[in-house]
Design brief:
The chain has about 220 residues and is mainly beta. It is about 0% helix and about 40% strand. The protein contains no helices and 16 strands. The strands form three sheets. Strands 1, 4, 5, 7, 10, 13, 14 and 16 form an eight-stranded antiparallel β-sheet that branches. The structure holds magnesium ion. Magnesium ion binds next to strand 8 and strand 9.
Length: about 220
C-alpha cells in the first residue's frame, strides 16, 4: 500500500482521520447524561482550548488500535503548581490517560507528570517545553483484548514526546486511576471514543489526527 506522507513533519498523512480542521470541533462533543452535545470549548486562530469547567470532550467516532498525533501548549500564565498547572490529558477508550501537564520546572509525583501513563508509569525522561510553546505527542495505543470477559492481552502504549521516545510499548496495568492505587482491567468494547480532559486549566490543542491500525 502507498500512503502519501504529510506536507511536512507532524502533518497528517493521506490515510489519517483529521480530528481538528483548525476551524471547528465538529468531530468532538461533550457527553452529558449519556447524550452527545456540541463542544463548547473555544476555537481561535487554528487552535482550540479546554473550556475550563465545561467538561471533557470525546470524539464522535470510536477507535481501537491507533496512531495518534496531538499538539498542545500549556498556559503562558504558569500559575498553580503540581497537578494544578496545565493539566489536561489524552484518554484512550475513556480509561487510559496519557497525562498533559506543564512539567517545565513544575514538580509533581513521577507518574503524574506530563507524558506519564497517569498513576502507573512516568515517562523515561522529561522533555517538557516552556509554557505556551507547542509540544507534540505521537502515541501508538494498542487496545486491550478481552475474551469471555477475561483479559487475554493488556493495552500497550508507545509515546514519543517532542520526538523523544518516553514509553516503549509499555503494558498498562489497567485503567489509569489515582497514583498509589491498584489498577484493574474491567472488560469493555473493542472500540471507544478518544477523550481530551478538562481539568479546569486552559490548555491549547491543534493538529490532531489519528490512524487506525490493523492488528
Ligand atoms: Mg490529566
Amino acid at each position: 500500500p502507498v500512503v502519501a506522507p504529510g506536507a511536512g513533519p507532524g502533518a497528517p498523512p493521506a490515510d489519517a482521520i483529521i480530528l481538528f480542521n483548525g476551524k471547528d470541533l465538529s468531530q468532538w462533543a461533550h457527553s452529558r447524561k449519556g447524550q452527545l452535545v456540541p463542544s463548547e470549548w473555544p476555537v481561535r486562530d487554528g487552535y482550540f482550548e479546554t473550556g475550563a469547567g465545561s467538561g471533557s470532550v470525546v470524539t464522535r467516532e470510536s477507535f481501537g488500535d491507533v496512531q495518534l498525533h496531538v499538539e498542545f501548549a500549556t498556559p503562558v500564565d504558569a500559575t498553580g503548581f503540581s497537578q494544578g498547572r496545565g493539566n489536561s490529558g489524552v484518554i484512550f477508550m475513556g480509561r487510559y490517560e496519557i497525562q498533559v501537564l506543564d512539567s517545565f520546572g513544575n514538580v509533581t509525583y513521577a507518574d503524574g507528570q506530563a507524558a506519564s501513563i497517569y498513576g502507573e508509569h512516568p515517562p523515561s525522561v522529561n522533555v517538557a517545553r516552556k509554557p505556551g510553546e507547542w509540544q507534540s505527542y505521537d502515541i501508538v495505543f494498542e487496545a486491550p483484548v478481552f475474551r469471555n470477559n477475561t483479559l487475554v492481552r493488556p493495552a500497550y502504549v508507545t509515546v514519543f514526546w517532542n520526538g523523544v521516545l518516553v514509553h516503549h510499548r509499555r503494558a498498562l496495568m489497567g485503567p489509569t486511576s489515582p497514583t498509589m492505587t491498584v489498577h484493574s482491567y474491567v472488560p469493555h468494547e473493542a472500540e471507544l471514543p478518544l477523550t481530551l480532559q478538562d481539568h479546569s486549566n486552559p490548555v491549547r490543542y491543534r493538529n490532531l489526527w489519528v490512524r487506525r491500525l490493523n492488528r
